[in-house]
Amino acid sequence: MQQLLGPQMQPLLVTEYNPQRRSAVRYKLQLPVAFYWNDGGEHTANGFTGDVALDGALIHSSICPPVGCDVRIEIFIPSLGLTREQILIECLGKVTRAASYSGGECFGVRGFFDDDHITRRMVM
């Protein structure tokens, strides 16, 4: 489905969209993310979050896992202080949608972030 949203915007191609009410508040955060999936072969890629919620995230990247695929994402939160510490939050989920646009691709992940998937690590 292509749709022009304004004279300055490029067409947005949506691979799949599942309209549903949001069950969690989304936060517009651009954080580095690594993600991993297996669709018959092991894949790893990097990108940035577009938004994050307790029940998932929107990821912008040059490559996207297939819709319906299980994916593990790792979001890296840098320290706001002078320490070299970084917080890593993991989420195991499923790719619910994917879209292409002139600047790249993005995909939505439905999964849950919880305290059991937060670790601290030192950045060298």
Describe the protein's architecture and organization.
It contains no helices and eight strands. By secondary structure, it is mostly beta strands. It has a domain of 69 residues: predicted glycosyltransferase like domains (Thrombin, subunit H), CATH 2.40.10. The N terminus is likely disordered. The protein is 0% helix and 53% strand. The chain has a six-stranded antiparallel barrel with strand order 2-3-4-7-6-5.
Quick recap of the structure?
With 124 residues, this protein is mainly beta. Helix content is 0%, strand content 53%.
Number of helices: 0
What class, by secondary structure content? mainly beta
Approximately how much helix is present in the residues? under 10%
- Biggest pleated sheet: 6 strands, antiparallel, barrel
Order of helices and strands: EEEEEEEE
- Lateral strand order in the biggest sheet: 2-3-4-7-6-5
SSE topology sketch:
Layout lengths: L12 E2 L17 E7 L3 E12 L2 E6 L8 E9 L6 E17 L2 E8 L6 E5 L2
Antiparallel strand pairs: 1-6, 2-3, 2-5, 3-4, 4-7, 5-6, 6-7, 6-8
List keywords for this structure.
124 residues, mainly beta, Thrombin, subunit H, 6-stranded antiparallel barrel, 8 strands, globular, disordered N terminus
